[in-house]
Specification:
Elements (H helix, E strand, L loop, with lengths): L12 H8 L15 H5 L10 H9 L3 H6 L2 H4 L5 H5 L6 H14 L8 H13 L4 H11 L7 H9 L14 H13 L23 H9 L1
Helix pairs in contact: 8-9
The structure holds iron/sulfur cluster (2 copies).
The site of one iron/sulfur cluster (SF4) has 15 residues, from helix 6 and helix 7.
């Protein structure tokens, strides 16, 4: 993946301090750039900056580059890097901690799509559904059409259940989402504008329609 050159002039010491104060950031200064996290990462080839680079960028306080990096959205939270880091640094938790900061800063990234779909499914149903996740994500990501034959064969073999399991009482879950939205309310003006989701929300079928359509 082609990388843009970093601009050290954009160092932001307040951002660095903000990250270092968190549990995910407390050991970041001890990173020795060994690269074990990169060697352990199953998706580093898709990232514009590897976990090792991201840690270094945080050390340098490169706020704009860190928060606009696709790395924090590509990470699958598999924890391989956190388990193997010889310095006890937790890149996984670092990624998760940076996401709400990027949202609050109004920094958009096209790789946020899956996180948005996942959160919508949980918000609406209280539980994850592989079928809904795949269907809804496919509507936002045209490239997923290539996976259609594979998805259909998995459904035919019963590997992707079509039934949607819903939580009976979502009152506490609603409260958690409201609290999160209030805490990390995005800024009105976005600093980094990347591709926006081109699929109009009103054209997307609802959860029930998707499930019914697949059963036909
Ligand atoms: S494994 Fe740990 S010490 Fe090594 S580069 Fe990654 S974060 Fe730094
Ligand atoms: S937790 Fe994220 S960054 Fe770490 S190895 Fe897994 S995918 Fe890569």
């Amino acid at each position: 993946m082609k990388k843009e050159p970093l601009s050290p002039e954009s160092r932001d010491s307040a951002f660095k301090e903000q990250v270092l104060k968190t549990p995910a950031g407390e050991k970041i200064q001890t990173c020795m750039q060994c690269g074990i996290c990169v060697g352990s990462c199953p998706v580093s080839h898709e990232m514009d900056h590897s976990p090792r680079e991201l840690v270094r960028m945080v050390q340098l306080g490169l706020k704009r580059e860190v928060l606009s990096s696709n790395t924090i959205w590509i990470c699958t939270t598999c924890f391989s890097c956190s388990v193997r880091c010889p310095r006890g640094i937790h890149p996984t938790e670092l990624m998760e901690m940076l996401k709400p900061i990027a949202i609050a800063e109004g920094i958009k990234n096209k790789n946020i799509k899956f996180d948005n779909v996942f959160s919508d499914v949980i918000k609406n149903n209280g539980r994850a559904s592989e079928f809904l996740l795949i269907s809804k994500y496919s509507l936002t990501e045209p490239g997923m059409i290539k996976q259609l034959p594979f998805g259909l064969s998995m459904m035919a073999k019963g590997k992707i259940p079509l039934s949607i399991d819903r939580m009976e009482n979502t009152r506490e879950l609603d409260a958690i989402f409201k609290l999160g939205e209030k805490t990390w309310e995005p800024k009105k003006e976005s600093k980094e504008t990347e591709e926006k989701d081109k699929q109009p929300e009103q054209n997307k079928p609802g959860d029930t329609e998707l499930a019914e359509g697949a059963k036909k």
